[in-house]
From TrEMBL, chain B:
The lineage of its organism: Bacteria, Bacillati, Actinomycetota, Actinomycetes, Propionibacteriales. PROSITE patterns: ABC_TRANSPORTER_1 (PS00211), ABC_TRANSPORTER_2 (PS50893). It comes from Tessaracoccus antarcticus. Residues 5-245 form the ABC transporter domain. One of its GO terms (cellular component) is membrane. Gene3D superfamilies: P-loop containing nucleotide triphosphate hydrolases. InterPro entries: AAA+_ATPase, ABC_transporter-like_ATP-bd, ABC_transporter-like_CS, P-loop_NTPase, PstB-like. The keyword Repressor does not apply. This is Phosphate ABC transporter ATP-binding protein. Keywords: ATP-binding, Nucleotide-binding, Translocase, Transport. One of its GO terms (molecular function) is ATP binding.
Amino acid sequence: MNPLTAGRLPRFTEPALLVVCLVVTTAALSVLNAGNPGVIIIVGALLFLLVSFALATSVEGVRHAKDRLAAHVVTGFFLIALAPLVSLAWGTVSAGLARMDVKFFTYSMRNVIGEGGGAVHAIWGTLIITGMATLISVPIGLMTAIYLVEYGARHRLASAIRFFVDVMTGIPSIVAGLFAYTLFSLFFGPGTKVGIAGAVALSVLMIPTVVRSTEEMLRLVPNELREASYALGVPKWRTIVKVVLPTSLAGIITGVVLSIARIIGETAPLLVTAGMNQSLNTNPFDSPMATLPVFVYYQYVTPGIPQDPYHARAWAGALTLILIVMLLNLVGRLISWKFAPKPGR
Amino acid sequence: MSKRIEIKDLDIYYGKFHAVSGVNMTIQPRSVTAFIGSSGCGKSTVLRSINRMHEVIDGAYSTGQVLLDGVDLYGPGVDPVRVRRQVGMVFQRPNPFPTMSIRENVLAGVRLNNSKVTRPQAEEIVEKSLQAANLWKEVKDRLDRPGSGLSGGQQQRLCIARAIAIAPDVVLMDEPCSALDPISTLAIEDLIHQLKEEYTVVIVTHNMQQAARVSDQTAFFNLKEQGKPGELIEVASTEKIFHNPDQKATEDYITGRFG
């Protein structure tokens, strides 16, 4: 007999065991009249962990059994993490699909009471405000990161900036909103609610994430490339523009897209800065501007009678927001794939 | 073009750390000089001081003079960027720019320095540099492919082509073969022999056979003792260093009775 062989469980054992465990638990719990599906899954999974560990120990030995146990626990936690995501996606799609019609994307809420109406004003608002926030944040964030990595190095100013950027990452979004609100109230009179104020509030939230992600990406560029460029007699700024940035562009774009995704769903700061508008307003410098999160909030919290059309609009708004974020991610991936250094064989 | 390098009383520091002390030597134009010595004795640092690349590290500075045909590279108001346009460098590990094609890599020095070149001029530079780096035959049909797709030895020759594309006076090589296989090493060594016709070449190497094969002059660096700055122990013709060195330390190192 080959001394290197050991007992192995047949491949189908584990799936079969899982099914058996679930069936047994269902039967046992329904006898006890506690047939809640959640409880069944949890108890069944625990039973499966125990039984499979015991079975694997007897057939394959303790080391293999521990290995399998670890794999099961990791998979289990992954499924637990996945559960809310799937449930959220399912909930939003099933509730929001009803109003994903042409009218929703062509009508605003101007003079709409009850059924009908749409979110075109909120979609435009979200795109405009997020776009402006990106226009403000990306240059500031990019330059800050370049300063931190390429020029600051170990200077005290750089470590101070890095520290405050970290602090900024943790600012509650409502504080950012109140900051922008106060700023605009100081300059343009109390109660000023305009789109640009929302963009400013969002950029306060966006800048630190852009700085952090860009900084990480710039750090990944090997120093050898910078040295190669310097050795060719290329000045520092051109080295940064022509060598460092192109090399890390894919990662920077991914970072920017992620930070857009982070701020596009912000509600509180927009509530206080950009306010709400029932009509389409595409001028960010005048009068309040509707945005999707705020639209969803108002539709859901202050419905008219009957409530159903308002709630349906809220869900459709949420679904639209998710779709926009998804689209952004796809575009980001496409762009970073296009710019990523190719292996070339 | 090829220029004479004179190093006078050169001391190099990284912050408070005294890396190299009291280097004096002359490097003739159209010759190959090899720097040998154990790791950490400052030969790469001296090499980098010839195009001021050691200053890339924070806190590095030097005293003394490095003269290129009589012009002090460390004189007041000297722009390191201009120095580096005259003194090219090839590094230990091949480092082609990953976002650029083979053609763009060769032209990187020209293009990034903002000089305008017409298409035919650019084509000429690419072909001439790649020919000079013995790489033209291998890559002429795929100039638009990324440089990172080449083999290690080819990448290193691409880096040499990139360095000589800006027509420097001096080419510095910091252990250019240490990451390469013997065949590629041979290719680079042949190339060094050819480069000697036009350029002053200085090469750092850990491979003594290599120093003996390629160089006309050899400089041996060593630490007096652990913690002391590195020093130039002896510089003479390669023939003399390898057969009849003046210093006992040199002989010990060459013959492997070291440390």
